[in-house]
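Budget justification aside, the reviewers requested a transparent look at the raw inputs and outputs of the sequence design task funded under Objective 1. We therefore reproduce one unedited record. The lines immediately below are the structure tokens for a 428-residue chain.
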């Protein structure tokens, strides 16, 4: 059999996604605490990722996928077998199992709002946790949809369990509809993406895909074609501790030096709270220590790699200034590469984006090619030679107790996956 050509402007009527099952998958996944742990020396960094991976293996086997496994590193692999004898390149879909360490992912209590009527959404009046329209204007376009929120005490986990649910449901749909012709489709669920290690153990030869797509984007109908380039900086400040009763002239307080270091970081124009679009930033996000030693973790972000170099040089300059101001301290700045802008790498195979745009067109939608002020596993996969744009998955407000997801947008994302598989088959 071959791949039938579809000349119609869209084929939405063919894709009848099981909304309730998609919702149930998502609610089940968010209940598993998979928060990544930046201080852990193990991989994955949290046992919850292994737990969710085992759950997914059971589901994928039940669906009827092939080559289903959770490998020794916790990564979950599976294959949707082709339904055509035509030589169609394998494509892959990826999401990550972990959630951000910046907000608790334990004991998540999702709240489902059917037929959203508009207006602010109060999550927790006691904590004054409210999803506000003026901060989430996209809500104005989602009246009548089904929303999933937190209870205001944890994150939701839509980043990236919305993506996992979408990919899994798309795979189930394709198995249930063998009349839809497509090539081989690889599924890959990775660990520790949130702390920069999502692709550490991804074997591209094993994946054996021509292109991949991450389902890790906001809203609907976006195709992220550029990401930040990113480095991690760890500033270590060594001081000298002694009992405060005899500290005069002898104590060197690393905590005070750390406070001074942070206060010297430029805020206007170089912090996430004061930048937008293509502006980069230096973001101190975690501090831990004592008088004797304090460590500051910072992320460096910009679309241009050379500006990351300038940011690192600025940190070194500030460190020297603080050493002068606090005699006896010793400051070191360690820079670790995290990921690079996927923009240039996507040109290796323009079909990755072109076919995603075409899939949206056939569904009667206008795809928007966007930049993302963050990164995905696709950044690193693209850098390693596998072009991997990022697609919407219906998630919003990631890393926050104000996180929410839209089931209707997740349904749309499922439809896009199915349509992308059809386009790759028809164009091969």
């Amino acid at each position: 059999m071959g791949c039938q050509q579809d000349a119609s402007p869209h084929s939405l009527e063919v894709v009848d996604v099981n909304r309730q099952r998609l919702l149930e998958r998502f609610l089940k996944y968010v209940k598993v605490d998979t928060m990544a742990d930046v201080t852990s020396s193990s991989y994955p960094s949290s046992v919850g990722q292994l737990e969710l991976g085992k759950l997914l293996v059971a589901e994928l086997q039940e669906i009827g996928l092939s080559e289903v496994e959770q490998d020794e590193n916790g990564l979950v692999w599976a294959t949707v077998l082709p339904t055509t004898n035509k030589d169609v390149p394998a494509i892959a879909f990826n999401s990550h199992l972990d959630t951000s360490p910046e907000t608790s992912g334990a004991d998540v209590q999702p709240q489902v709002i059917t037929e959203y009527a508009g207006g602010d959404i109060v999550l927790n009046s006691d904590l004054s946790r409210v999803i506000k329209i003026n901060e989430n204007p996209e809500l104005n376009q989602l009246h009548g949809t089904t929303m999933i929120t937190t209870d205001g005490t944890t994150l939701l986990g839509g980043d990236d369990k919305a993506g996992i649910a979408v990919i899994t449901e798309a795979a189930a749909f394709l198995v249930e509809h063998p009349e839809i012709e497509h090539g081989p489709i690889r599924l890959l669920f990775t660990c520790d993406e949130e702390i920069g290690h999502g692709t550490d153990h991804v074997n591209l030869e094993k994946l054996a895909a021509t292109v991949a797509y991450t389902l890790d984007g906001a809203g609907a109908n976006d195709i992220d074609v550029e990401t930040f380039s990113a480095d991690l900086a760890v500033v270590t400040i060594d001081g000298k501790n002694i009992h405060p009763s005899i500290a005069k002239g002898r104590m060197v307080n690393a905590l005070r030096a750390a406070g001074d270091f942070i206060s010297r970081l430029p805020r206007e124009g170089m912090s996430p709270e004061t930048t937008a679009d293509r502006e980069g930033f230096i973001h101190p996000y975690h501090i831990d220590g004592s008088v004797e030693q304090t460590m500051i973790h910072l992320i460096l972000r910009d679309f241009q790699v050379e500006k990351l170099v300038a940011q690192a040089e600025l940190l070194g300059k500030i460190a020297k200034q603080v050493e002068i101001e606090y005699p006896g301290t010793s400051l070191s700045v360690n820079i670790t590469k995290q990921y690079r802008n996927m923009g240039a790498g996507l040109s290796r195979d323009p079909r990755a984006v072109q076919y995603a745009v075409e899939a949206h067109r056939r569904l009667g939608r206008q795809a928007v090619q966007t930049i993302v002020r963050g990164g995905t596993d696709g950044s690193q996969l693209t850098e390693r030679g596998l072009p991997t744009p990022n697609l919407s998955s219906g998630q919003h407000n990631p890393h926050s107790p104000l996180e929410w997801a839209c089931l209707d947008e997740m349904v749309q994302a499922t439809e896009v996956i199915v349509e992308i598989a059809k386009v790759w088959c028809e164009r091969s």
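Residues 43 and 72 are 9 Å apart (CA to CA). The domain at 12-227+341-427 is CATH 3.40.630.10 (Aminopeptidase). Computational costs for records of this kind are itemized in the attached budget.
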